[in-house]
DNA sequence: AGATAGGATGTTATACTATAACATGTCGAC
DNA sequence: GTCGACATGTTATAGTATAACATCCTATCT
């Protein structure tokens, strides 16, 4: 599995796939992908970037009636609960899931230069499992977040030109 | 390296070791472990539990003059910057570092039943490194946090008695 | 069609987390 | 002893999140 987010993918397909997958999974499970929830997911999908709840709120407000925080928090709760989005704790913000449908313990690579967030998974099984087992700890959920510089921003820094 | 925090260690030694280590490292590096900073570290060390900034603020206030948020946030900034404490992003709170002195990318095991936090490290090198390298990502910092149930709380749940 | 029950959204208010900005104090180097 | 650097005190405010209650929508049963 490879990191999705920094470059080299057809992003419009990425969006439509994710939406189609979300619709299918909701239909199968009897969840309701309401217009509000769908719209928030679309906004999150529009870029591989983490958006804060209040960023989303602003975008939603610009589209019509003013919205209140609970509206977007509720949509985010639905999306994260069912694996359509993830919260990036370090940024207090949210990204669409890049691997919808598959159960996974994601690893996020957060570029501090351009704010893009790539989602990948551990190549060699989940390392936490080993650490948790050793400690006798029953793991339920995990968040792995790394900050750094993405390939594109590194290239940009090396040929700074001006 | 084993997980420190859930049980089976001499906690008073744990506290005095950490304080001594912090003092030594500050002396070596010319950092100032002021009374305020030292006190916040002591409070964090008093249990292997994550404390919020406002919890600390309350404890400090009870000890004397009322304190304002920046006081504790500044102490926390100093402690985290120099590796004496870590922030637990999922909880918006802070723990004393259980492995002071050694450079490390910690893994936190957070018990959702008793709120204790154990700090351990990956047994087999850092898995993020591999994922990051594969993505061409230059990693600077990482946070690995797992939620679940600690051994003691699991035992308690299994023999619930009454 | 009407009644009803569950869940989704609207709305107000407020709690919790964090920092900006500026004043004041402390301590060591010169 | 004064100067500069750093630490702390203080006020105000920004940013993140949720409680609580009202309303509405939709699916189902009769």
Quickly describe the structure:
2 copies of one chain form a homodimer. By secondary structure, chain A is an alpha+beta fold.
Shape designation of chain A: globular
Per DSSP, what share of the residues of chain A sits in E-state strands of 2 or more residues?
15-25%
The CATH first-level class of chain A comes to Mainly Alpha
Quaternary organisation: homodimer
Mean pLDDT of chain A: 89
Secondary-structure element sequence of chain A? Answer: HHHHEEEEHEH
The number of strands of chain A is 5
What is the number of independent domains of chain A?
Answer: 1
Helix-strand blueprint:
The structure is a homodimer of 162-residue chains.
Chain A: H1 11-29, H2 35-45, H3 53-62, H4 69-81, E1 85-88, E2 93-96, E3 107-111, E4 117-120, H5 127-134, E5 138-149, H6 151-158
Parallel strand pairs in A: 3-5
Antiparallel strand pairs in A: 1-2, 3-4
Helix pairs in contact in A: 1-2, 2-4, 3-4
The first copy, chain A, binds a DNA duplex (30 and 30 nucleotides) through helix 4.
Brief descriptors of the model:
two-stranded antiparallel sheet; DNA-binding; 162 residues; alpha+beta; 6 helices; homodimer; three-stranded mixed β-sheet; Arc Repressor Mutant, subunit A; 5 strands
Give an overview of the whole structure.
Two copies of one chain form a homodimer. Chain A contains six helices and five strands. Chain A has a single domain (11-158), classed as Arc Repressor Mutant, subunit A, CATH 1.10.10. The first copy, chain A, is globular, with a radius of gyration of 17 Å. Chain A is an alpha+beta fold and 162 residues long. Helices cover 43% and strands 18% of the residues of chain A. Chains A and B meet through strand 3, helix 5 and strand 5 of A and strand 3, helix 5 and strand 5 of B. Chain A binds a DNA duplex (30 and 30 nucleotides) through helix 4.
